[in-house]
Amino acid sequence: MSADTQLEKWEVFIQSKPGANFVHAGCVHASDKKMALQNARDTYTRRGEGTSIWVVPCDAIVASNPDENDMFFDPANDKTYRMPTFYVMPEGAKAI
Amino acid sequence: MNQQEAMFKYCLRLGDNALIRSYRLSEWCSNAPILEEDLALTNFALDMIGRAQALLGYAGQIEGKGRTDDDLAYRRGERSFYNVLLTELPNQDFAYTMARELYLSAFEYFYYSGLAGSKDATLAAIAAKTLKEIKYHLSHATDWVLRLGDGTAESHAKMQTAVDDLWPYASELFESDAVDAAMISAIGAPDPAALKDSWMKHVSAILKEATLDVPTTMYTHTGGRNGIHSENLGHILAEMQFLPHAYPDAKW
Amino acid sequence: MELKEQTAVQSDLLKSFEEKIGRDDAIEPKDKMPDAYRKHLIRQISQHAHSEVIGMQPEGNWITRAPSLRAKQILLAKIQDEGGHGLYLYSAAETLGISRSEMIEQLHSGKAKYSNIFNYPALNWADIGAIGWLVDGAAIVNQVSLQRTSYGPYSRAMVRICKEESFHQRQGYEIMAKMMAGTADQREMAQDAMNRWWWPALMMFGPHDSESPRSGDAFKWKIKRQSNDELRAKFIDKTVQQAEVIGLTIPDKDLKWNEARGHYDHGPIDWNEFYNVINGNGPCNKQRMDHHKRVHAEGAWVREAAEAYRAKKEKQLFQSKN
Ligand SMILES: [Fe+2]
Ligand SMILES: [Fe+2]
Ligand SMILES: [Fe+2]
Fold it and tell me: Distance, in angstroms, between B135 CA and closest chain A CA?
């Protein structure tokens, strides 16, 4: 007998209502795309939590390395000119 | 048989199909090949219970004697159940269950599509809601028949056995009798006999794609629609109706 | 690397890990973590997952005999949720580098455990009420606390689970309430179920703090945030009143409100029974495991077929492209 298979792992993303972001919900196991979608539906939208589902094979997910967080994310911390509050607006100007 | 009696029996037939099928589907709970499929089959069982509630509840209204969906489900004898035999056969294995689901869902897809256009507003509404569920059931069963038919040698053999063994039970779905005739003329219900060709074409195409042989048996099992069942139904009812029988005065 | 250097790196890692824990930052799968933390989590989460899945069986025993369509619907939806919980938890454990197949193998070999409570039989319909009310009620006390556990995927699974659990306890209590308001037979069944499930439910929280001190790794690493006795007291305090409201007697003659502690005092728990069941001698240990092994073995051909079909279709697609 061959080794046990519990099928492939897929990450599941759910959109809770039209226009909303897809949010990671969890994982399901499935052998193919269609099964992955169906399993995601039965696992994560039983209470009407979703209007749309994405499934992605787990091994297609690339994650950043927490050891590189310094070089990866810290440089964004001092770029305050990307924020609207950085700018001084003249007194009395409206709708800006 | 007057119009009301025909309508009552008609609703019981539809409701009993859902009720007994829900019983068999619910037996898969904690018994499925993988956890995800356990959740899926339980969902189908829940769909069927919901459908049974709607149809048996409506049957009770038509009868007009104050019987509820629960009264009809839990306090009726075997000879007054009118589900088709296919729904009461044991699950056997996953291939059998998928073959049964394919046969029933394919039939219901055509049947409920017709019923959704019925002149009876209640049945039309139930059918419209049910049709959404049926489409999903059909797609799920189709996928599994393809996977199992065209999977391994072992799964192919099991799927073929299931398809063959259940085939003689499929014809009962297309029987058309006085009850159907009354409903066809009264509320514009579909004629089951008229759906056989579409069903045959649809199911044969799936079986062929699944590399399975389309059975050629002519023999057909029948009786459920008139209360003559296989030995299985008695056991189902003995178990399902146990508490209401043992404690007739209790409310649960 | 020299051994000495390695240990230095190790202790650096441990330091930054413990700083994170100290700041209440969640630990995520790719973060460095001590091996013992990883091992502890795998053991705890997989045991939790197995409990959800094995827990489907005692309630499953009544699916075909549920006494009304509504009751059957609720029970099925509830058991289905438990299966889902098992699934979320297996996924959380998988982020630590163990596969679901391995976890199932460990369950079958006896290396991994599941909650003792599911080694008791569900004998009458009131047991379905008692399980929902007492067993899920006890579980949720623990699970609410675990929402703040330090490992991100585990904590997120607990948040989802707690949301879904909210109806489980209520449906169980509703069954008990209905039966206590029913016939003499029903009241007898309800009290009988109460008598059989009360003590095992208290055992679900594990040994007394005196046996299993708060100072262990699980606390240091904030995997566990409240002690066994704290959680047990929480459960007892809220359950006693609920029992009174519907007229059930708690089978403990020593149960008494302790004004000074602000908690109920309870009689001695039979830890002999507890360890007996853990060691495999509960009424249903063998039955539960046999069921799981049988289902797993019977499903193998289906899972293999699904994989084989996918492989075939991929090959066909590849050939048609070339
Ligand atoms: Fe649970
Ligand atoms: Fe749960
Ligand atoms: Fe629960």
Answer: 13
> What pTM does this model have?
0.94
Q: Which residues of chain A have pLDDT under 50?
A: 1
- Inter-axis angle of helices C152-180 and C69-94, to 10 degrees? 160
Which tokens in the block code for residue B160?
A: 């073929």
- State whether residue B140 sits within 8 Å of chain A by CB: yes
Domain with residues A8-86, CATH architecture:
Roll (3.10)
Q: What are phi and psi of A50, to 5 degrees?
A: -140, 155
pLDDT confidence tier of residue B218, bands split at 50, 70 and 90: confident
Q: What angle do CA A57, A64, A43 make, to 5 degrees?
A: 35
Q: C5-38: per-residue pLDDT in tens?
A: 667 767 777 888 999 999 999 999 999 999 999 9
Other CB atoms within 10 A of residue B58 CB: 21
Our count of domains for chain B comes to 1
Domain residue limits at B230:
3-246
Whether B58 maps to a domain, the answer reads yes
> C283 and chain B: CB distance < 8 Å anywhere?
no
* Token code pair at residue A11: 């990450």
- Cα–Cα distance for residue pair C32/C10, rounded to 1 Å: 10
Contacts for C270-277 with beta carbons within 8 Å, 24 or more apart?
C270/C199, C271/C203, C271/C207, C273/C199, C273/C203, C274/C116, C274/C203, C274/C207, C277/C116, C277/C119, C277/C120
Strands A22-30 and C263-265 turn out to be unpaired
B with C: how many residue pairs have Cβ under 8 Å apart?
A: 135
Q: Express each pLDDT in B53-66 by its tens digit.
A: 999 999 999 999 99
State yes or no: ipTM above 0.90.
yes
